[in-house]
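Researcher: Here's my situation. A collaborator sent me these components and asked whether they could plausibly form a single complex. I don't have experimental data yet, so a predicted model of the whole assembly would be a useful starting point for our discussion.
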Amino acid sequence: MVRGTGSTNARTDAAAFDEIVRHARGTGTAKSVGCYVRSVPPRLSGEAASFAARMNPANRTPLEALNLPPGVLAPAALTVLVSKYWGPQQEEYTVSFMERTPANLRARIVEHMNAWSTRIGKSFVETASGPGLIRISLDQDGYWSYLGTDVALIPEDQPTMSLQDFSMSTPESEYRRVVRHETGHTLGFPHEHMRAEVVARIDPKKAYKYFLENQGWDQATVDDQVLTPLDAADILGTPPDEDSIMCYQLPGEITYDGKDIDGGEDINATDFHFAEKLYPQADGTGSGRRKGSRKAGATKSATPWMAEDWGPGNDVDLSKFGQ
Amino acid sequence: MRLFEFKADTQALPANLAIAVGDVLRFAASGGRVVAGTAVESLGAFVRGTVATDGSTLSPQGPPGTMLFRAVAPGAAAIELALGSPFGQGGGTARRTARIEVTVEG
């Protein structure tokens, strides 16, 4: 399905890819990479995955959807939603605040966002001016963040993350639990308690009763919030981790066995382990603040191992295969 | 018909409220319900939605942040709001409730 591209482009792609692999692995040279598999352009990735799965059900794996260079990733705990993945390139994401916010508070929040950056090749820096790619509001309802690359699709006059009423008097434990959790969403990590294995621990009857009495939620809301597992084909990461920073605390009153789902209070070792596989640091120095920067309005950067788009008119008709 | 909006801070919430049939109440809350009377109905708990720059609709990861109620008939009702985090202790955002007595005028 993948057609060759012009030789000039191919050389450019290969050189750039070599650079990324060298950075991702932290060792070796560009010459150590002899060949690689290039993926189709983004507009065809869904069709390609469907076709591959149709031809061989064993191909129904989320790994291909990530378009990762070879050798970068091995499954571990913590989940990433494959369709929201930022890619392994080293990047610094700009951060701004929707409301007038004291400098020490802004710095404290960004510092906790960068707790992830001690181990991964992504980092966060406050913008000097203008809206950042990540826009934080302290005046919205509750705590939330858009997921992964969805952040880049939110209009610039709207926040991408809400940290309602965070202030300098908010306990440090809340910074660790909430700011790092919401930053995990920004990096593409969904809730761990939506993993099928965790949802299977919850008794729906108990959950409906508990959340009706405590939250006034109808069954549809309970289904959405705690009882609908993520589709295994859309996620990457095994096994589920109930101590992950991305897992909510859920009471034993709603589980079959009466035991709490503890949830995470901070980024744990398995969170870091998986995150650094997905977003490897270039040189392992403990700082992701290097190459590349993404601001509001920026589009997702090109992945050099992806084929140049040859145009719809030259697509292969796949309908005759595997019917 | 009018739309009344209330922020999440419990200090700002009135203990009693007089509204008219058709009025809608919007609270920054993670949940809520009618606990007495039939003059008010719950329209539900809502998660934020955004129309993305590519025209798609997106919602953030997080619990509902808005509760809507509508006055449907003259009379009295009481509503209870769930504020703070629905999940876990939540430190300073621990779940708490607020009750509002509502009178709906004909």
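Model: Some features of this prediction you could bring to your collaborator: The first strand of chain B starts at residue 3 and ends at 6. Chain B touches chain A through 38 residues (CB under 8 Å).
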